[in-house]
Automatic annotation (TrEMBL):
GO cellular component labels: cytosol
PROSITE patterns associated with the record: GLYCOSYL_HYDROL_F1_1 (PS00572), GLYCOSYL_HYDROL_F1_2 (PS00653)
Entry protein name: 6-phospho-beta-glucosidase
Keywords: Glycosidase, Hydrolase
One Pfam entry name: Glyco_hydro_1
Origin species: Longibaculum muris
Example of a GO MF term: beta-glucosidase activity
GO biological process: carbohydrate catabolic process
Keyword set includes Plastid: no
Catalytic center residues: E366
Length: 468
């Protein structure tokens, strides 16, 4: 492994930050989304109900614990931390005349704290947390006006932190727009009964792709040394059999992934994109100049989340899932308590597939296992299952780099400090190296406690993965 390889962790403001009504922050789309029970989807409201618990309001309170949490990351030896900026903390309504200085100062403090420990910030501009007012006033990403508003927000923070942040990611899991039944997190959209869902979906996708490209273009003007990445929810998918028709079904399953990354990396709607538009009978508007913007605003690196793999084929029962994805169960794999199939070798396969297609540097922006952690009588947390999961996935990552010569420059485990689940709002589904005393009802002391995996990851970084 390269001695400068970026080992670290990742989080999202809406799941981690809290402080939803502090520092001049406005409401985000997550602030009207209540938690759900195990395995169920969350419920979206039109406004905040005072008698209901909304997980994002406090989350795990990084807003007040950022110094403590960053110190814990530094103790593990983190070389990078992938985080997001909450748009509504910078522009409370998304279209305010001026940015919120108190919000900008908060992230100044966070970045200064990271840099104090030589931890490289990798900043996601849009991670499922757009201002709620943009949904209420403009209809979310249905509206082309969000391009200019999102780019103005991006320019504001890139200008402010141009000497503190080098790596930027435009949209988190941008292809979830095509995968989620209701693209609320990605685009602030709940489909209306009288609208064509496919056309709305493709129109919103085009607007976000243009906004991503414009962000890259404007960012390079601010600092030519900025490095920009996309972020894809990657689906490692296998054919159920050697039947040729099963291979075509796998090909089709990957189209929503390649659609976005082809545009962001290659700068155009490729034949793959056009084929998917035709397959879906999609129609959307483009303005003169859009194609040139896409061509100019390509990304420097490809980042992606990887948690599980699925199978596809004729007659496959879609009885497995993983991070919005669904498909068939693989009889050769074990699954987590949430039904996500554990496939370390799938990470190596995915790294090769992506690098073969695009030939630009890769970054693993999310990888981890959600589990129910139990405290022992002495207070310790023995999470050997997490260590095994990460050890096997990092072994696959090493093989991809050292045997297959894949160019990958970093790995951000999701998520180093326990945080609420994006899919269900649960707290009992824990990913972290650090336990946070909080339950699904928002009750707890917020005290941080190191798990066994904390020390394992500390040693992994110290030895640059030479001791797994």
């Amino acid at each position: 492994m390269n001695k400068n390889f970026l080992w670290g962790g990742a989080s999202a403001a809406n799941q981690y930050e809290g402080g939803y009504h502090e520092g001049g922050r406005g409401l985000s789309i997550n602030d009207v989304e209540m938690g759900a029970s195990h395995g169920k989807k969350r419920e979206i409201h039109e406004y905040v109900h005072e008698d209901i618990y909304y997980p994002s309001h406090k989350a795990v309170d990084f807003y007040h614990h950022y110094q403590e949490d960053i110190a814990l990351m530094a103790e593990m030896g983190f070389r990078c931390y992938r985080m997001s900026i909450a748009w509504s903390r910078i522009y409370p309504h998304g279209d305010d005349e001026y940015p919120n200085e108190e919000g900008l100062k908060f992230y100044d403090k966070v970045f200064d704290e990271l840099l104090k420990y030589n931890i490289e910030p990798i900043v996601t501009l849009h991670h499922f947390e757009m201002p709620l007012a943009l949904v209420q006033k403009y209809g979310g990403w249905r509206n082309r006006q969000l391009i200019d508003l999102s780019v103005r927000y991006a320019k504001t923070v890139m200008q402010r932190y141009k000497n503190k942040v080098k790596y930027w990611i435009t949209f988190n899991e941008i292809n979830s727009l095509f995968i989620a039944g209701t693209p609320w997190h990605q685009a602030g959209i709940i489909y209306k009964e009288d609208e064509n869902k496919v056309d709305v979906m493709f129109q919103a996708a085009h607007y976000q792709l243009v906004a991503s490209a414009l962000t890259v273009i404007e960012g390079k003007k601010i600092n030519p040394d900025f490095q920009f990445g996309n972020m894809i929810l990657y689906n490692c998918c296998y054919a159920m059999s050697c039947r040729p028709e099963d291979q075509i079904l796998v090909h089709d399953k990957l189209l929503p992934i390649y659609y976005f990354s082809d545009v962001q990396v290659r700068g155009r709607y490729t034949n793959t994109c056009l084929a998917y538009q035709k397959k879906m009978n999609a129609h959307f508007d483009k303005e003169p100049g859009d194609e040139d913007i896409l061509k100019q605003g390509t990304v420097d690196f490809y980042s992606f989340s990887y948690y599980a793999s699925l199978v596809e084929g004729i007659g496959v029962e879609h009885s497995a899932n993983g991070n919005l994805l669904d498909g068939g169960k693989n009889p050769y794999l074990e699954s987590t308590s949430w039904g996500w199939q554990i496939d370390p070798l799938g990470l190596r396969i995915s790294l090769n597939r992506i690098y073969d297609r695009y030939q630009i540097p890769l970054f693993i922006s999310e990888n981890g296992i959600g589990a129910i952690d139990q405290q022992e009588t002495d207070g310790s947390i023995i999470d050997d299952y997490r260590i095994d999961y990460l050890k096997n996935h990092i072994k696959a990552l090493k093989d991809a780099i050292e045997i297959d010569y894949v160019d990958c420059f970093g790995y951000a485990m999701w998520g180093p400090i326990d945080m609420i689940s994006a899919g269900t709002g649960e707290m009992k589904k824990r990913y972290g190296f650090v336990y946070v005393d909080l339950n699904d009802r928002g009750e707890g002391t917020f005290q941080r406690k190191k798990k066994k995996s904390f020390y394992w990851y500390q040693n992994l970084i110290k030895t640059n993965a030479n001791e797994l």
